[in-house]
Specification:
The protein is about 50% helix and about 15% strand.
Length: about 350
């Protein structure tokens, strides 16, 4: 029916997509002021005001002193339209092609491109979709491991408390990396626990270790406890990095960075570096989730976006476990399709 409407009244579909996107942005960012809403939507102040008046008249949004937020009716409309709008936008078709190519459980594609202006909006959409996939698929899972990074950090704010999550445990999938405390796996695990009303375990060890340090740390009671939890993990949520950028982020030696370039490393996850065919070409010494753990973990949610990440995502997905759900954006998805066609 939507396809017939698009042919008969094409301007109606464009208008509906604009209002749908505005409603989704309000749900994602609300309560939010009119000016910042217009900025992230790419609309003038007049266009924003007009659209908000229409949405408010239909009781889809609520405008108050603290900002604009979505109403229960608005959330219901979003949910009802989601499937049709994804089909109409072409994202559902792209997701299906990528799912079949990678041979994994599912691929979900959100609007936008994390590499472009409005990067924060695209990243929030990734976080919203990842939160939805987690809430929908976690089931009776109790132990959830999360990595660090800005993309995974965008997920907790979109998770709603479950009815029975007091015994759900969030843990860091690896040690600390980088200087931004807010993007450390420990802090993100705590954010998830707060959002879900669950618990979390801290893991205060650096991600990269010398051989001697790794042997010593493995005997520490807190590490022994964490290693046992990795064996019983029910879900992992992780990002995917560009190999060279991650090596630089870790302050890897020139020798190690040269090794990565010479071995054709393009992607990174869990401290493992992958070439374009999915082969592990290098790994760092770390105490954390290993690729060997992944095969028996029921739910794996990989989250990464931006056209520049396409090769890195494909490198990891070439050997990703079949139970993986990939959440990505249009920028990365379209670039991956282009690379697939060129093969």
């Amino acid at each position: 029916m939507i396809e017939a409407q698009r042919k008969l009244v094409p301007e109606m579909m464009e208008l509906m997509q604009q209002r749908y996107r505005m409603l989704k942005l309000i749900k994602m960012s609300g309560p939010i002021g009119r000016r910042p809403l217009g900025q992230i939507a790419g609309l003038s102040e007049r266009e924003t005001r007009t659209m908000m008046d229409i949405l408010r008249a239909q009781d889809l949004i609520h405008v108050a002193k603290e900002g604009t937020s979505i109403t229960p009716e608005g959330s219901s409309v979003l949910q009802s339209l989601e499937s049709a709008m994804e089909d109409w936008s072409g994202r559902a078709s792209i997701a299906k092609k990528l799912t079949e190519f990678f041979g994994i459980r599912a691929v979900k594609v959100v609007a936008g491109n994390c590499d472009m202006d409005g990067n924060a909006t695209a990243k929030s959409l990734l976080g919203m979709e990842a939160a939805k996939q987690f809430s929908t698929n976690i089931g009776d899972g109790k132990v959830v491991a999360v990595t660090g990074g800005s993309t995974i950090a965008s997920i907790p704010s979109h998770i709603e408390k479950f009815s029975d999550t007091t015994d759900q445990l969030f843990i860091a999938a690896r040690g600390g990396v980088g200087d931004d405390i807010g993007l450390q796996a420990n802090v993100i695990a705590a954010s998830f626990a707060e959002a879900c009303g669950g618990m979390y375990n801290t893991f205060y060890y650096p991600e990269t270790l010398s051989e001697e340090a790794q042997k010593a740390f493995r005997n520490e009671p807190s590490v022994v406890k964490m290693l046992k939890l990795y064996e019983t993990t029910d879900c992992v949520m992780h990002g995917i990095g560009n190999a060279q950028k991650m090596a630089a982020f870790r302050n890897s030696s020139e020798e190690e960075q040269l090794l990565l370039r010479n071995s054709g490393a393009v992607g990174e996850a869990f401290g493992y570096y992958f070439d374009k065919d999915g082969h592990v070409v290098h790994r760092i010494r770390t105490v954390g989730i290993q690729t060997g753990h992944l095969e028996r973990i029921p739910l794996i949610i990989s989250v990464a976006g931006g056209g520049s990440k396409a090769e890195a995502i494909m490198a990891y997905m070439a050997s990703a476990p079949k139970q993986t759900i990939l959440v990505t954006d249009e920028g990365a998805a379209n670039e991956m399709l282009r690379l697939i066609i060129e093969k």
